[in-house]
Amino acid sequence: MNRIKEVLDEKGIKQTWLADKLGKSYNMVNSYVQNRQQPRLEILYQIADILEVEISELLIEKAKYIAETESKYKFNKKI
How big is the CA angle at 63 (ends 2 and 5), to the nearest 5 degrees? Predict the structure, then answer.
């Protein structure tokens, strides 16, 4: 999962601008932003370069993602 949406919001940048800089369609960038699809590693590096951030700032730690997902969907934990 990625934090592209959060970084765009923090920097006040629109998805259309990022799509133009990447040479991708708005729909493709939107799918990255909404985490419906994950960009290839090369694209993720391009996004980091364009947004002037470290690639690690675009990534969500697995443990944090799992915790957020569990609380969002209120999964029942059964052992």
Answer: 20
Instruction: Return the half-sphere exposure (C-beta side, CA atoms, 13 A cut-off) of residue 11.
Output: 18
- pLDDT of 26-74, one tens digit each? 999 999 999 999 999 999 999 999 999 999 999 977 656 656 666 766 6
In a domain, 12, yes or no: yes
Within a domain: residue 79? no
Tokens of 27: 């729909």
Q: pTM here?
A: 0.78
What's the structural domain count of the chain?
1
Which ranges of the chain would DSSP assign to H, the alpha helix? 4-11, 15-22, 26-33, 41-51, 62-73
